[in-house]
Amino acid sequence: MKTKELSQIALMTSLLVVLGFIPAIPLPFIAVPLTLQNLGVMLVSLFLGSKNGSLSMLLFFLLGLIFPVFSGKATSIPTLMGPTGGYVLAWLLVPLLFGYLSSFLKKQSFLGLFGMMWLAGVLFVDLLGAVWLSQVTEMALSQSLVSNLVFIPGDTVKALIATILAYRLSDFRA
């Protein structure tokens, strides 16, 4: 692995940690708050790709074993054991899923990248999170899925912002 790649992994992991310092917005009807860390997960996926993005996410989780890197000043174990665990576990897989989905794009157009990021970074995360939430809180799965609809508009905006940044600043247009 090259020094440049290691630096990029460390930088994106740092971004995830910094986004965790931004206070989450609690919601009264669901045990999962609104956070900005999932924007960081999308940026990691877009800028680093499958392999390095997954390494960055793994490093983030490993740091979380020792330091409170998750939103709400939480460490990995309590975060994974609580109602947000499914969303956070899905984050580990977003770079891999995004890489797999985007491999089907013949030309990496803006709309294609946004669509793949929306599927991996919004739909997949919210679905896995809803299933986990229903298990941990004993909420009906249908109720959990409906409650998760509140995240879709904001997460879609985050996916759009991440795609714009990556498309403008990266080599997708090459």
From TrEMBL:
This protein's UniProt keywords: Cell membrane, Membrane, Transmembrane, Transmembrane helix, Transport
Superkingdom of this protein's organism: Bacteria
Membrane topology term: Multi-pass membrane protein
InterPro entries: BioY (IPR003784)
Leader sequence segment: none
Intracellular or extracellular location(s): Cell membrane
Protease listed as a keyword: no
Keyword Transport included in the entry's annotation: yes
Pfam families: BioY (PF02632)
Principal cellular location given in the protein's record: membrane
Annotated transmembrane regions: 55-72, 84-103, 110-133, 145-167
UniProt family annotation: Belongs to the BioY family.
PANTHER family, A to Z: BIOTIN TRANSPORTER BIOY (PTHR34295), BIOTIN TRANSPORTER BIOY-RELATED (PTHR34295:SF4)
Protein's UniProt name: Biotin transporter
